[in-house]
Amino acid sequence: MTALTLDDVTLTYPDGADRLTALNRVGLTVAGGEIAAITGPSGSGKSSLLAAAATLIRPDSGRIRLETPDRTIDLAQLTRREAAAVRRSAIGIVFQQPNLIPALTAAEQLEAMSHLGQHRFTSPTRRRETRAKARDLLAAVGLADQHAKRPAQLSGGQRQRVNIARALMNDPALLVIDEPTSALDTERGAAIIDLILEVARTHHTATLLVTHDRTHLPQMTSVYTMTDGTLTRSRATARAA
Question: Disulfide: which of 104, 154, 192, 238 matches 108 by Cβ 3.0-4.6 Å?
């Protein structure tokens, strides 16, 4: 069983002599294979929520529990080194901009993820396995024939597909996705959302998705609204019924 649970999570930032509340006792649960969409105005705390769930920032209080088939981790209690290790092994992050490395091909972008945190020496067998997995993931996102191209040779939608495939390279239990369609036109954006739905279902990942595009919300498992650091569940969607 895979699931992400946030329980009473609070996060504040310094604001002069006071503190600004970014997350105010936030709670939600997302099971493996489900997508929880988070909407809300800019500055409401959506990015802070993603950062806390992805272990990029530690909350002031509360629990962030990630359940995987072999262990349960309280992400809010990890040291920086432990958090980095968990991100490499159990969390996939899809940023708003793909942030691909210009000099690397699409396949090499994925292969580099697999080698993070590894010893300098990698056996030929391990390299072959990594290369094959990268090709398989690119094929799964519709880029089998683009594996040798560098970012400048790819369209915006293709770069975002590489971004998603890269996040899956280490078989994450949790996917954290920030505005994946913001730089795409309507048709390409819809294709990316369809891909994310398929990825969550096929890989059984618990997925948090921040979006401003409300046209995709009916496809999500659940929808939440963030306002001034407070998260409320808008509704369960038809897909969850």
Answer: 104
Nearest one of 61, 98, 58 to 78, comparing CA atoms: 58
What residues have CB less than 8 Å from 132, skipping those under 6 apart?
none
Element (H, E) at 63: strand 61-67
The widest CA-to-CA distance across the chain, in whole angstroms, is: 57
pTM over 0.85: yes
147: left (phi over 0), alpha (psi -120 to 50) or beta: alpha
Pair of tokens at residue 86: 């968990």
Q: At the topology level of CATH, where does 3-101+171-240 sit? A: Rossmann fold (3.40.50)
Q: Are 67 and 75 in contact (CB under 8 A)?
A: no
Contact 211, 128 (CB under 8 A): no
- Other Cβ atoms closer than 10 A to 155: 11
Helix (H, G, I), strand (E, B) or coil at 3: strand
H/E stretch holding 112: helix 106-115
Cα(236)–Cα(219) distance, integer angstroms? 10
Cα distance between the two ends of the chain: 20
Q: Render pLDDT for 162-212 as a digit per residue (tens, 0 to 9).
A: 999 999 998 899 999 999 888 788 888 889 999 999 989 998 999 999 998
Contacts of 131 (CB under 8 A, 6+ apart): 107, 111
| Alpha-carbon gap, residue 239 to 241, rounded angstroms | 6
Interval 50-85: pLDDT, tens: 999 999 999 999 999 999 988 999 999 999 999 999
